[in-house]
Design brief:
The structure is a single chain. The protein has 396 residues and is an alpha/beta fold. It contains 16 helices and 9 strands. The strands form 2 sheets. Strands 2-1-4-5-7-3-9 form a 7-stranded mixed sheet, sandwiched between helices. The chain has a two-stranded parallel ribbon with strand order 6-8. Helix 10 links the parallel strand 4 and strand 5. The N and C termini lie far apart (61 Å).
Length: 396
Amino acid sequence: MNFQGLIVCRNLLEEKIFSDEANAYEIDARLIERAEHLGLSGNLYRAYMIYLLAHEPNLISTSIELNGGKIGESLREIFIHDVEILLPILRGELWGDLKILNIYKPTVANVDESFNELLRRLENLYRANDIADIFIEHWKKFGYGDIATYRAFRWDAVTKNIVGIKHFEKIRLDDLIGYAHQKELLTGNTTAFVDGKPANNVLLVGARGTGKSSGVKALVNEYYAQGLRLVQITKPQLKSLPDLMETLRKFLSKRFIIFLDDLSFEESEAEYKHLKSAIEGGVESRPENVLIYATSNRRHLIRETWRDRSDEHEELYRDDSTNETISLSDRFGLIIHYYAPTQAEYLEIIRSMLKRRGIELDAETLRLEGLRWEMSHSGRNGRTAQQFVNYYLGQR
């Protein structure tokens, strides 16, 4: 096919599979390689073309991100022009000489939710403007490339880019037992955020093993289709927060939670000042599509000891030092407290976890086994309950 007439999708000219210069065997080999690597099925010409349009950046998809989901009518018309050129492939009318390429079944099928939804929506569509509009809606909802494929990312300070986390935990809010009030606060703030309403940075603080980190991860699975993504950074990376913010500013149609897990600082550590500036107070404003969620076992994130309060180390203006140590946590507009469960709550967590696996213990056996496990482990919390359930199921 001749793609020279393409305008906004000219990046397709670089793909050798659709090049007139490639011979048939080379095309077949490349298509099969892509199908196995990406999990593509059916007519591989069509499937691979749809994959390229969905994932490779072009003028349309990048404009949608930069303009918060908006696209000009003129740009839409130009895209329809490009789709007209690609119609024989997108309709599945291009067939390979090797018949298996037309009904291919990969070893492992593609499990990308956004891509599979796009494939379903394109079924039985034949007009260029209808197909173009489906792609535009897809880019508005999911984005392109890794932003569409992954729910969570890590920050690479060297390349100054976000890197998709392929095996992200599939936990949902319904999997978290108890802490209904905390989940209500967390989801209320996050719902407002993805709806474009005012929302706060969040600090989840309290006892270990109570599901603080799991709650944040579950949010991304709940709100993925509404454009929410998570980016995890480490404490040493806080100094590169401005670079991360600038990167996320390029994807204005999406909402990002920057996630800091198990956060705390010694008073001698300077990284907390970068975080303070990023949350509030820096010269450059935080992007409207970014919030910071952090978890900690400590209410005041900057550690202070009695030695810091001794007379020989006392500052002339003690209140100034105190304000400095608490000012970081005060910049989180929403602070959600997680407390260690009572004995009854702890046993209920175990009972519910086992019930979901089809196992029901009588009350006395549950009490004896659950409390015996608690006494020999790290205390009474959700993590200990999960560990007991894993042990119990493994012994059956």
